Amino acid sequence: MSVKKNDEQQICNEKLKELKKTQDKSIEVRNLVEMDLNHIWHPCSQMKDYEELPPIVIEKGRGINLYDVNGKAYVDVVSSWWCNLLGHCNERINGAVKKQLDNLEHVIFANFTHRPAIELCEGLSKVLPRGLTRFCFTDNGSSAIEAAMKMSFQYHYQTGNPQKKRFMALSDAYHGETVGALSVGGVDLYSQIYKPMLMEIVRVEAPDCFRCKYGKCRENCNAECFEAAEKSFEEFGNEVCAFMVEPLIQGAAGMRIYPPVYLKKLRAACDEYNVHLIADEIATGYGRTGKMFACDHAGISPDIMCLSKGITGGYMPMAVAVTTDEIYKGFYADYSEGKAFMHSHTYSGNPLACSAAVEVLKILNDEKIIERANERAPFFNKIIKDKLLNHKNVGEIRSLGLINAIELVEDKEYMKGFDSKRRVGYEVYKKALEKGVVLRPLGDVIYFNPPLIITEKEMEHVVEVCLECIIEVLGE
Ligand SMILES: *Cc1c(COP(=O)(O)O)cnc(C)c1O
Q1: 176 Cα: distance to centroid of ligand 1 (angstroms)
Q2: Cα of 33 from ligand 1 centre, angstroms
Q3: Which atom of ligand 1 is the closest one to the Cα of 178?
Q4: Nearest CA to ligand 1 atom 3
Q5: With bands split at pLDDT 50, 70 and 90, how would you rate the model's confidence at 262?
Q6: pLDDT given at position 2
Q7: Does the beta carbon of 185 lie inside 6 Å of ligand 1?
Q8: Whether residue 140 has its Cβ less than 6 Å from ligand 1
Q9: What mean pLDDT is predicted for residues 62-77?
């Protein structure tokens, strides 16, 4: 009898201890959130929104999943802002960075160099479009854009074309958020308020396949809309040093996809007018479109290509602006001629980031990551279309590689969008978070841009959750 009573007592104690633990944990989490909100100004956020949706404290990541401090899992189907390429805490990248960490964390990159940077350039130049051989390192995507713009401007200045001072770019382009990058960008959400600070761009109306003015579809399109660019080249070609473009997918514009033939025409026009083509492959590079680079779909080489995001697998901030021997030679002279490219970032060529990037290239190659992702891509697109296309508010589903975007509209017949004040995309996003999927939208465009290792089972799960959330917000 007394033995049994002791047992019961013990079980009771254990339970109390458990309860105490969860209580402590929830107090700890609440404290963390409170301290976060006392200090941290989160990116791309109206901080007042955080009153209703407090920041989620993430403790660890494995594969495609993130886990918060309570152990709740979130499927990272947006690759943590498009940078995570091979899953979180990838064993091989972890190993490479740890090994590098014990040798060298950082070194001044002027006059000094190191194995990881050299190996990275050797490896990348084997897979880059033809002619891209010279690497300028920066530490984030926007700064690579700035470097590319300065490089093009200066090249023309010191090779006898000082009148070429302006830049051309597409409407709704996104190239980052520093002042130069914002200038070439065309998404008002990010740039409107800063217009007085920005340089004047020759803006070209971007292709809009969803609402094609020429009544073409993918099968019979010959990029008729390129005539807008042609006109601008005729008018301003002589005063323009470079055309900045996101090849094939205008990401922040809502994953707007246009065909490779547009890029071919753009390459030809740039050649005709002695304008550099700068390909911003920060989002599209590294297999996101089904090929290593989006430019590969069109078989073109840009004069400068910017890479970041996937380059380190999403491990470390790093970017490169890669260019040709021709441009490089425009700067190569005796010091006294003042032709050097005096561009620098303290963390240029950081060895830890380079070591991650070297390993990423090896994994892509050894594990046939892009080929295998391409095998699964049609399945992903099919289940998304099967499940979602019939919904009354799904206007279009567009896809390239594993990227799939779902444009929500109020009126499907006239393809009329929702009032942005309703924040329909944001409402869907919040529902999905409750259900453990990160579906951070672009306006009312919900999209999947998962790590390339996503499995078919994971695809089925996230599509199911997406449908549930759309129904909960907008009805059947
Ligand atoms: C993310 C992005 C950038 C900016 O990169 P940051 O590292 O965020 O500065 C530029 N261009 C494109 C196409 C991007 O997707």
Answers
A1: 5
A2: 28
A3: 9
A4: 176
A5: very high
A6: 57
A7: no
A8: yes
A9: 97
DSSP character string of 217-247? -TTT---GGGHHHHHHHHHHGGGEEEEEE-S
Residue 210 has pLDDT above 90, yes or no: no
What pLDDT sits at residue 3? 59
Residue nearest to atom 7 of ligand 1 (CA): 141
pLDDT digits (tens, 9 = 90+) for 388-433: 999 999 999 999 999 999 999 999 998 899 999 999 999 999 999 9
Give yes or no for residue 286 CB within 6 A of ligand 1.
no
Q: Is 279 in the pocket of ligand 1 (CB under 6 A)?
A: no
Residue with tokens 């107090």: 27
Instruction: Give the model's pLDDT for residue 25.
Output: 83
| Ligand 1 atom at minimum distance from 283 CA | 15
Q: What is the DSSP string of 36-68?
A: HHHH---TT--GGGGGTSPPP-EEEEEBTEEEE
DSSP SS3 for 348? coil
DSSP 205: P
* Token representation of residue 290: 């089904």
Give me ligand 1 centre to Cα 247, in Å: 13
Give the Cα-Cα-Cα angle 7, 10, 16 (nearest 5 degrees).
145
How far apart (Å, rounded) are the C-alpha atoms in residues 284 and 286? 7
Q: Where are the domains of the chain?
A: 2-51, 58-89+368-474, 91-366
Stated pTM of the model = 0.95
Question: If DSSP codes are grouped into helix, strand and coil, which group holds residue 31?
Answer: helix
Domain 58-89+368-474, CATH class in plain words: alpha beta
> Whole-angstrom Cα distance, residue 387 to residue 84?
26
Measured in angstroms, how far is the CA atom of residue 322 from the centroid of ligand 1?
A: 15
Residue 204, pLDDT > 90, answer yes
Q: Could you tell me what percent of the chain has a pLDDT over 70?
A: 99
> For the segment 358-376, what is each residue's pLDDT rounded down to a tens digit?
999 999 999 999 999 999 9
- For tokens 């073409």, the residue is 216
- Indicate the top mutation candidate among 78, 174, 347 to test ligand 1's pocket, ranked by most ligand atoms within 8 A of CB: 174
258 Cβ below 6 A of ligand 1: no
Instruction: Kindly give the number of the ligand 1 atom that is closest to the alpha carbon of 145.
Output: 10
Question: Does any ligand 1 atom lie closer than 6 A to the CB of residue 152?
Answer: no
Query: pLDDT at position 36, please?
Result: 97
Band of pLDDT at residue 283, cut at 50, 70 and 90: very high
- Report how far residue 458's alpha carbon sits from residue 357's, in angstroms, rounded to the nearest whole number: 26
Residues composing the chain: 476
| Calpha distance 49→288 (Å, rounded) | 31
Location of structure tokens 């090896």 = 362
Distance 276 CA to ligand 1 centre (A): 20
CATH number corresponding to 91-366: 3.40.640.10
pLDDT digits 0-9 by tens, 99-137 = 999 999 999 999 999 999 999 999 999 999 999 999 999
